Amino acid sequence: MKRHFDDDLQAFHSNLLKMANMTERSINAALDALHSRDAARAQKAIRGDNRIDTMELIIEEQGIDLLALHQPMASDLRMITTGLKINSELERIADLGVNICQRVIEIVEQPILKPLIDIPLLAEQAKSMVRQAIDSFVNKDEELAKKVILMDNEADRLKKVIQSDLLNDYIVKDGSTAPRAVPLILVARDLERICDHATYIAEDVIFMIDATVVKHHRDRLLTKAVEQND
Amino acid sequence: MKIKQLKEVLGFLALRLCMVLVMAILVVVFWDIVTKGGGAVSWELLTQPPKDGMTKGGIFPAIVGTLLVTLMTALLAVPLGMGCAMYLNEYALDCKFTRFIRMSIRNLSGVPSIVYGLFGVALFVEACNFGTSILSAGCTLGLMTLPLTITASEEALKAVPRSYREGALALGATKWQSIRTNVLPYAVSGMLTGTILGLSRAAGETAPILFTGAAFFLPDLPGSLLSQFMALPYHLYILSTQHHDTALVRPLAYGTALVLLILIFIMNLFAIILRSRLRQMKKE
Amino acid sequence: MPLAKVKIKISDFNFYYGQVKVIKGVSVEMLAKNVTSIIGPSGCGKSTLLRCFNRMNDLIPGARAEGRAEIEGVDILGPQVDVVELRKRVGMVFQKPNPFPKSIFDNVAYGLRVNDITDRLIIEKRVEQSLRSAALWDEVKDRLKDNALNLSGGQQQRLCVARALAVEPEILLMDEPASALDPIATARIEELIVELKKHYTIVIVTHNMQQAARISDHTAFLMQGELVEYGKTSDIFTKPRKKLTEDYITGRFG
User: I want to staple B147 with a disulfide (CB 3.0 to 4.6 A). Which of B108, B205, C158, C226 is the partner?
Assistant: First the structure.
């Protein structure tokens, strides 16, 4: 039977996609600004965040209305609650993009400390995780979501490498490099957090698809894989 | 626990006894009439007028008379009774006055039939100048049946769900349209059932026609509405108590009783069939 | 979005059964081509209010209305109002499905016939249209001559909707139309209501708050004959302004 509720649900879903799109574009802009040391571009990305904040509120209200007015059950319920969670994850990712832009503005004002090698790698990792997390939500792709979760380890490793390089090779050896090294450490931390939020999105997507809780239970990812192989 | 069960069994037994007793009486009466009257019922009885001081011949004029007077009764009681019932149930406001009217109607059905007879003499025979006739007797019986007809018809109307009326009105029907197309069709068989039961009672009455039109003996059939007539119940009364040789005409009396019974049974059967059809319709 | 037109407007509206005041000073504006629901605890007067819009209360002795009630700015209370005409414009579906014990076809045609439409072709066309609008056509098109009482409860109620639509009303009043139906039939009726609001103004009384939430654009919360709160359904159910409304919709009542 056709449900008019489905129309409302569809509207909620497409707004979420819009939100995901905006967020992705926003962090891409931030990372481009970092890569090209472009302060103007960073400024522009910071200003664009308002639109994302507004969108977040719209989606939140939409989600609450759906819950209050339609009393959704089962997959509908999971779709809306995870949608609401993904909504705030996306907003946080966008905020972290803003943080990176602010660091970019600081960095640009100073001479180059060193050519960036690992940070672009981490940035690529973050971009790809966000991209794939969103894709897994759009396509309800559980395998892709699992892949995103497993990618998080690499992000953690990269962040640690960047952090210890900057600390040991620059700050410890020559304290005067700290003002140039610390923003880079912060950028790495923000990038790693973006990866974390992408992971949360992937976890939510898995819950949405088949109601399995993988959050705080990474082991279930593996057992599930085993079950499926049987 | 034991005592409880014993009480249950005894109570049930007592109730069953009541039923058996009533049935037994009915069966005895019926058996008596059928066995003694059965022999008397013949083609002659049904088609010939009484002969030789009512000791021979048949009861044909009485059968025709009863049928005619019942028809007259129906002509009066059916439209009047149904009309009253429709007014009371559909149009009249439920106020003290209508409640009083309703109560009066119920009380009227308890008035002894001989009183109706006297009233009929005063109103129809004398005041209206109908004389002793089928018309007077039919009107008297009609009046007597009215309370029953009205009450039964009102019940039948009440049994039509309110939602039929409301549904019709909500579609822009007028009150009369809603009653005509959506109430009466479903009430009419119930109304008729009550009316027929009333008529069959009237057909068996003696007292109201005693002074208003029934004749002791007529060799011919009634010529018009203003003629006197013979009637089965009155004829039975005469044969069993007023005849100079009641013992001789006892078989004839039994035969008359049986014919009257059958006539009334047929009417009641008709009512029962109507009612069962009504129930069927409601169930659907 | 263009500004919606006010279809039904009542102001300072009071209603009495004899000496008892059952609706107390209610003022509401209901928009055209919207679903407006009236909710409230049993006996709060929501059905009575609904039945004021097609003057069904006239049938009750001692019932009396006071104040103003208008449809498209025209008074519907006064003695000059042709009630039969009003009821053609304001259709009604009752709590319990009440098909007449006639054929499916005759049920839908009933309203046309009492309104003196006799042309068979017109009647047939209208019956089909109405049954289609009520999402019943496909289920009954091969047995229009069957007795309507043989339909299931949900089908009967949709038949009653079709019957009301056949008269081409502007407003459809629904008095707890799904309360006697099972969940599936209820869902169908709800979908139907949302579908119908494209063409009709719908006012629905429901004891089922969730139903009001699901299908209506505006909600009026009535208690003991008084209008406690009236507003957009999404506002009433997510951020009611009155404590009483909050308590009622959260089930913390009493």
Answer: B108
